[in-house]
């Protein structure tokens, strides 16, 4: 559970170190993504909601992820240029990350009745899917519910 005042402080410091004065920081109210880099507004934002659920380290990682976007530009996407930049400033990606952030690029998130999360890059078909963690074989008790989310 990161403290929001701390988050603001880290963001200001990271923006000063890696970006410039034209960039600012804000909290947003997203529930399904941890952070966002808004190129038009030159604004790095972090979900107030997820920041309060995540550890300090997770929130710092989110900030680094978004700041790397700011440094390399929107067109780089999550490609090699962004990856190299993110790694250089200390983003460790999937290694110590929550699924929420590591699978940020996945457009679809499924949840089973026991709260396991499943990520898909393509729209899931109409066929019912059951959670593989709850049961190795298809089981109606563990049906996955899908939702689409915004990715940046
Ligand atoms: Zn499950
Ligand atoms: Zn990203």
Descriptive account of the structure:
With 152 residues, the chain is α+β, with helices and mostly antiparallel strands. The protein folds into two domains: 4-94, Zincin-like, CATH 3.30.2010.10; 108-148, no CATH class. It contains five helices and six strands. A three-stranded mixed β-sheet has the order 1-3-2. The chain has a three-stranded antiparallel β-sheet with strand order 5-4-6, with no helix packed on it. A hairpin with a 5-residue loop joins strand 4 (108-111) and strand 5. Helix 1 runs parallel beside helix 3 (56-72) and helix 3 packs across helix 4 (80-88). The two termini are 23 Å apart. One zinc ion (ZN) is lined by residues 112, 114, 116, 131, 133-134, 142. One zinc ion is lined by residues 112, 114, 116, 131, 133-134, 142. It comes from Gulosibacter molinativorax. Pfam families: SprT-like (PF10263).
């Amino acid at each position: 559970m990161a403290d929001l005042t701390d988050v603001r402080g880290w963001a200001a410091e990271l923006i000063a170190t890696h970006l410039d004065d034209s960039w600012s920081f804000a909290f947003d109210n997203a529930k399904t993504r941890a952070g966002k880099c808004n190129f038009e507004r030159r604004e790095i934002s972090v979900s107030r909601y997820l920041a309060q659920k995540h550890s300090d380290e997770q929130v710092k990682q989110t900030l680094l992820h978004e700041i790397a976007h700011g440094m390399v530009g929107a067109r780089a996407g999550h490609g090699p240029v962004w990856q190299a930049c993110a790694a250089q400033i200390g983003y460790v990606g999937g290694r110590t990350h929550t699924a929420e952030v590591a699978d940020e690029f996945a457009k679809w998130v499924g949840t089973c009745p026991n709260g396991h999360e499943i990520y898909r890059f393509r729209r899931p078909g109409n066929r019912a899917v059951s959670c593989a963690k709850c049961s190795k074989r298809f089981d109606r008790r563990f049906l996955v519910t899908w939702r689409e989310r915004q990715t940046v």
